[in-house]
Design a protein that fits this description.
336 residues, alpha/beta, five-stranded mixed β-sheet, three-stranded antiparallel β-sheet, 12 helices, 10 strands, 36% helix, Actin-like protein N-terminal domain-containing protein
């Protein structure tokens, strides 16, 4: 969320008199509407709001770090890189991935103007920016960030996994295979506007919880059914062919709503007898009392690119040919 003053046309991270809340722009970008207005009566597009939000957040974080120096005088003066997480499905979609790169490029150009960030300046920098990421900035698949810590734990399993990430706006479901705790093959991924805040919005519009839950299950089924298709990864996910159960993992603060908890509880038994995993960052990551599960992605994003798990996206994995996917046949006495 970011705040915007229609009178001064300035963006802000904080609310104030006369300011309008602009929210849901990330979800709109994922849905392919980044170039459209967030609100009908404001000329601000979702891509512009995202660039302004990112610029203000980066300026705030880097400025706070420079001012407070939490690591003392021994800390490095410069950052090695700035990693920004995006859903696997977004990275695998050419247009959406291009939009995110453009947003980051514009945000980098806007950071020096954060003290008075106007809509005209945002539009000017956005239109002057390109789809090339600035030096030192990387877009990291949230899947690799989320499971980077998990992959290093002694209880981590190789093999088939389903990750359910319930955020504020979106529900992200990914079917993947973990190999030797260092490589990930993502067979299927979907992201839709079915997060915790989306649930509240649906309730406000009079939609029953059961309908919302069924929508979550339908999204899960789309991912799972594609992953277990005979030409994709049947020996990893198909119940009749797989040798081992599938590990289900749930992350994100939205997992704790009653609707999402029941959705996860319903799909869990279909994957086998493994316990549901809720990966979390190290307890010592913060001394502040909070829901540390919300810091999992942030923790994963702190690792350098060479340290992160190697990822093959769904579009990079070739389909199994018909001969490979055909069931094993045996020679009968009539064939001899």
């Amino acid at each position: 969320m970011i705040w915007f003053s229609p009178d001064t046309e300035e963006f802000s991270l904080l609310p104030g008199k006369g300011k309008v809340a602009l929210e849901g722009f990330k979800a709109g970008i994922l849905a392919g509407g980044g170039g459209k207005r967030i609100l009908p009566d404001l000329a601000v597009t979702r891509n512009e709001a995202a660039a302004a939000f990112l610029a203000l957040q980066l300026a705030h974080c880097l400025g706070w770090y420079e001012k407070t120096q939490p690591l003392g005088g021994d800390a490095a003066r410069n950052f090695l890189a700035i990693n920004i997480g995006i859903p696997v499905a977004a990275q695998d979609d050419t247009k959406t991935y291009r939009d995110f790169r453009h947003i980051v490029s514009a945000a980098r150009a806007l950071m020096p103007h954060a003290i008075c960030l106007t809509h005209s300046k945002v539009r000017e920098c956005y239109q002057a920016s390109t789809h090339d990421l600035p030096t030192g900035f990387d877009l990291v698949p949230e899947l690799t960030a989320a499971i980077s810590g998990y992959a290093n734990e002694p209880f981590a399993r190789d093999g088939a996994h389903i990750l359910i990430d319930v955020g504020a706006s979106t529900l992200d479901v990914v079917a993947f295979n973990l190999v030797n705790r260092e490589r990930v093959a993502a067979f299927a991924a979907e992201v839709n506007l079915l997060g915790a805040a989306a649930l509240e919005a649906a309730r406000g519009d009079g939609f029953p919880d059961d309908l919302f839950r069924r929508a979550c299950i339908e999204q899960y089924d789309q991912v799972f059914n594609y992953a277990r298709h005979p030409r994709v990864a049947p020996r990893n996910f198909d119940a009749t062919l797989r040798r081992n159960p599938v590990q289900l993992m749930a992350i994100g603060g939205g997992c704790k709503t009653a609707v999402h908890k029941e959705f996860i509880a319903r799909v869990h038994p279909t994957l086998g007898d493994l316990k549901l995993m809720h990966p979390s960052p190290p307890a010592q990551m913060t001394s502040i009392k909070c829901d540390t599960s919300r810091l999992l992605l942030a923790y994963g994003l702190t690792s350098d690119i060479p340290e992160q798990l190697e990822l093959r996206r769904p579009s990079e994995i070739p389909l199994i040919n018909d001969q490979q996917s055909a069931p094993i046949s045996f020679i009968s006495k009539d064939d001899v």
